[in-house]
Design goal:
Layout: E1 5-10, H1 18-29, E2 36-41, H2 43-46, H3 53-70, E3 79-81, H4 87-96, H5 101-105, H6 108-114, H7 123-137, E4 143-145, H8 151-168, E5 177-179, H9 214-223, H10 245-250, H11 252-265, H12 269-276, H13 281-308, H14 310-339
Parallel strand pairs: 1-2, 2-3, 4-5
Helix pairs in contact: 3-13, 4-7, 4-14, 7-8, 9-13, 11-13
The protein binds tryptophanyl-5'AMP.
Tryptophanyl-5'AMP binds near residues 7 and 196.
């Protein structure tokens, strides 16, 4: 089997939550053994909306610590903060001259974030996907493991790569594939099962943050929205062992909590449902709380050790930056040649 090149990233904005962990970070861990991976804390993306500078530094370190605590091997795979690998911003500019305004205007995430205030958001919020395309294409990534909400951005990356190749009549950029796998590709809010769990939801009770205390996890799960019916029987699953769209529509909160359990326990849905079918939610919620606490406590402990040794963490990031730069600068150098830039005095290659 050919080695894949994997790249993914997380924005250092707000609290890292169970959706980020189950939808992305945890899946990265299993990809390390056979593939070359790059994992980045995308601070350039974060500033597309206002960030308090001190808070941004803290969040950047926290996300890097979460990657490592979850099991990323920094000796094999660079973990780095995006802003320090200059090629990201430089390629993003070139790609912003390839992408079309109409493509960017159609991005769901831009529409959701800009809302009715489109004239007043930063230019960066609109051009954000060209930066994401640069993140991916700089490493010639073949696969991008993300949650479902990022699918459209990866499709756009493919469109940009294709147009670049066509415009210059060269087959240069690799077409990246999204990797959207597992039972938790779209973890929903604990308060409303039709809304995505999100860092920006004003209600902290809508999400489990990776650093929540045991008491808080217990309280959030206890208060999580459910309905008055018991846990359904596995017979309700479709032929692939998945929830039907009917159940997702009628009992979205139940579907979400069972998906979370299945993802954290690493157990297929039918086994989880076998165990709880016919039970009251109070019983299931106690078990879900125990499972979450049991799973998250060692990660929290590792994160806190890493965050208490800031010099070590910064050294890890610096090493990651050095390694990432080598690959990224080579691509940028090629792109300069393809586009027709003369590299006068730029000695970094
Ligand atoms: P971000 O920071 O919003 O989210 C980080 C990762 O978490 C996933 N995710 C979820 N998965 C399941 N359920 C949820 N409720 C949920 N919420 C978030 C996201 O899909 C993502 O995988 N644009 C990206 C960051 C980025 C990036 C990249 C990703 C920048 N450059 C290059 C991959 C490759 C973002 O805002 O993710």
């Amino acid at each position: 089997m050919q080695q894949k090149i994997i790249l993914s990233g997380v924005q250092p904005t707000g609290n890292l939550h169970l959706g980020n962990y189950l939808g992305a970070i945890r899946n990265w861990v299993g990809l390390q053994a056979k593939n070359q991976c790059y994992f980045t804390v995308v601070d350039l993306h974060a500033i597309t909306v206002w960030q308090d500078p001190k808070h941004l530094q803290q969040q950047t370190r926290e996300i890097a610590a979460a990657f490592i605590a979850a099991g990323i091997d920094v000796h094999q795979h660079p973990v780095f903060n995006q802003s320090q690998v200059e090629a990201h911003a430089r390629l993003a500019w070139i790609l912003s001259c390839i992408a079309r305004v109409g493509w960017l205007n159609r991005m769901i995430q831009f529409r959701e974030k800009a809302g009715k205030d489109r004239e007043n958001v930063s230019v960066g919020l609109l051009t954000y996907p060209t930066l994401m395309a640069a993140d991916i294409l700089l490493y010639q990534a073949t696969h991008v493991p993300v949650g479902e909400d990022q699918k459209q951005h990866i499709e756009l990356t493919r469109d940009i790569a294709q147009k670049f190749n066509n415009d210059f009549g060269i087959s240069y950029f690799t077409m990246p594939e999204p990797m959207i796998n597992g039972p938790a590709t779209r973890v929903m809010s604990l308060r409303d099962g039709t809304k995505k769990m999100s860092k920006s939801d004003p209600s902290d009770y809508s999400r489990i943050n990776l650093l929540d205390t045991t008491d808080l996890i217990q309280d959030k799960i206890r208060k999580a929205k459910t309905d008055m019916y018991p846990i359904p029987d596995p017979g309700i699953l479709d032929n692939n062992g998945q929830f039907t769209s009917d159940l997702k529509d009628t009992r979205p909160e139940v579907v979400n909590l069972l998906n979370i359990y299945s993802a954290v326990a690493n157990q297929p849905l039918h086994l989880v449902m076998n165990e709880f079918a016919g039970r009251e939610f109070s019983f299931f919620k106690n078990r879900l709380t125990d499972l979450l606490v049991h799973h998250l406590t060692p990660i929290q402990k590792k994160m806190s050790d890493l965050l208490n040794d800031r010099n070590n963490l910064d050294t890890i990031l610096r090493d990651g930056v050095e390694k990432a730069r080598k690959t990224a600068n080579k691509t940028l150098h090629d792109v300069h040649k393809i586009v027709g830039f003369i590299e006068t005095g730029y000695k970094n290659f």
